[in-house]
Design brief:
homodimer, 346 residues, alpha/beta, 434 Repressor (Amino-terminal Domain), Rossmann fold, 6-stranded mixed β-sheet, 42% helix, DNA-binding
DNA sequence: CATGTGCATGGAATCGATTACATGAGGGAT
DNA sequence: ATCCCTCATGTAATCGATTCCATGCACATG
């Protein structure tokens, strides 16, 4: 029993049938006699046989596997995304191989290449940059592909993402109401869509209050904590530092918090802080951080469905879901303290 | 150029040689003429040929892939572990497929089975329970295996983990010095080694101060935030609630924080809190949380090295690394405020 | 009774690589 | 000039499945 690794031949021999019949039983083909079926099942059981997925994939040209290349596993937003992707994929009979790019285009290429070499059935990517030659080639060749969260303009691939424009307008309205006029942003890499879009939306929202977004108030970050630290240090060294810092992701907000704290300053008394991407920890930081929450689970689900649609020959839909503002205390006392939006996680 | 998918035959035809020669060039076999080599390389280039990893694996009986089954992707500890595992594996020429068990034995089995079916070269597991039949069978059959963080007693598989005993003693000493006498713990599942060991170490440490750990002060959690909430609610309903709650992981600490906050109580004035597993956010919570930090990166690295040693025929070593206490403010004013251990994240 | 239909089954090709073995060319030693 | 060794190369087997096609049997139909 349960030998190290039996093949379909061993099962066939044990059951006294041909490999073809074993294969038919395993794939529930109708034309198999009850007798043969039970003998095969018994042999499978007693040998502890499991079909070799490698051989099966070679023959059938499908791996029933999706690749997911995310920008940063250490970012809770992406791990939640990865989790919902795996969940939905499993429900549809696929497994997922995750590649972590650590916001590095070279690593991203490494994983894309690796996944392509493994002949995954489809690829889900949240691109770290504007599109390497490899990525562009991959989009053009046969492999079904869907962008999630971020995308590459001009590439004909469905996109599943959330739109933060309205939420950013709400945020700016909230900040303006609290009396803030000098607002700064820690931007993500300009090569990413989320990096540039959030800045644009922020600038537009400011414009509707007759406010400017001077270059000195646009810090160039890379979605990692360190860059948040560095940018905020720069802001605080200005002759006229901003009253509010809006971090374009949660890790840069963490870095910003570090830098502010290192100078002995207080949030929001000395400087206010808001972040894109809400995470459970923001409820318990000092102070709780006002943030823009994405419908992360829904994004993951929708992305998988779009990709599987492409794989199985249906026409995939691009999807855009709205993000929303969650007001907490990091921008100053809210007009309605203890609203339902301050509620605990989950 | 860059067709949808060329095979080794196409390359052979384009280069005017046999598939054997192409294969030799690709695997840098010495016996290939410079002329043939350049012609093959040119054909590879112009066809955009990439070897099919599935076919290669079938023939060579190795996938150069490691499986990693972790207990919970949403737990920052495990994602850091996963990252370091992937990093080290990549350095050694392997890729990693991650399976997330969400602390559910059935999901864990699903992933183990899936990875085994894909004929991964080795398996890294941090078991969610005491060992399902499948897991025990997997450990006995040929697949090289290493346990990381948690393990299954009585199974002959190398273990790479950290020992929190000394750090827990330090924590109890710290708490005792601050005047706390009624200490409670939110335990992990008794079926996991980390679940039971942390309780044992805590009880032992208390004993050396002549303190008891009554059953009422042992809350049964499952390493997830919700259970932390539930357990702390129970503690606070006791006639004599504890003065300190020690959460056996960071997610249960988050839940504990939620529950304490929901009652309008304050940390550490009303109740002190400490956690196993340190994470960057603990620096910025209100108050900063005293925690026990594991050398997570080193654990990941060591685990991969042990596993690859087994795979490549060397003898793997079990490894145990010490954890250490990081004092912050969640247990009361420390005798040395603003020590170096309070420093900001990385 | 001859023939047609359908079902259960086995043989063998196939997927895309790697590799053992055979072959032939070229060069050095005798 | 003969023999032998080495090197470059090609042919074919192989890995473990799936699946097309042929075969044979049972049964229904004319």
């Amino acid at each position: 029993m349960v030998s190290s690794s039996a093949s379909i031949k061993d099962v066939a021999a044990a059951a006294g049938v041909s490999v073809a019949t074993v294969s038919r039983v395993l794939n529930s083909h109708p034309s198999v006699s009850p007798d043969a079926r039970t003998r095969v099942m018994a042999a499978v059981e007693s040998l502890g046989y499991r079909p070799n997925a490698v051989a099966r994939s070679l023959r059938t040209h499908q791996t029933r596997t999706l690749g997911l290349v995310i920008s940063d596993v250490l970012n809770p937003y992406f791990t939640e995304l990865a989790r919902s992707v795996e969940e939905e994929a499993r429900a549809l009979g696929y497994s997922v191989i995750i590649g972590n790019a650590d916001e590095r285009p070279d690593l991203q290429d490494h994983h894309v290449q690796n996944l392509l070499d493994r002949r995954i059935d489809g690829l889900l990517v949240s691109p770290t940059d504007g599109g390497s030659p490899l990525m562009l080639a991959a989009a053009r060749t046969g492999t079904p592909m869907v962008f999630v969260d971020r995308w590459i303009p001009g590439v004909d691939v469905p996109v599943v993402r959330s739109d933060g424009r309205a939420a950013i307008r709400d945020l700016v309205a909230h900040l303006h109401r609290l009396g803030h006029r000098r607002l700064a942003i820690i931007a993500g890499p300009a090569a990413t869509t989320t990096g540039s879009e959030r800045v644009d939306a922020f600038r537009e929202a400011l414009a509707s209050y007759e406010l400017e977004l001077p270059d000195a108030y646009i810090g160039q970050g890379d979605f990692q904590a360190d860059s948040g630290r560095r940018v905020v240090d720069g802001f605080l060294d200005l002759a006229e530092p901003p009253e509010v810092v809006f971090a374009a992701d949660n890790l840069m907000a963490l870095g910003a918090l570090d830098a502010i704290r290192a100078r002995g300053l207080r949030v929001p008394a000395d400087i206010a802080l808001a972040a894109f991407d809400d995470i459970p920890w923001f409820v318990h930081t000092d102070p709780p951080v006002t943030a823009i929450a994405q419908p992360t689970k829904d994004l993951g689900r929708a992305a998988v469905r779009a990709l599987v649609d492409r794989i199985e020959g249906r026409t995939p839909q691009s999807v855009t879901l709205p993000a929303h503002l969650v007001v907490r205390r990091s921008c100053g006392e809210s007009p309605h303290p203890r609203t339902s939006t301050e509620r605990s996680t989950r």
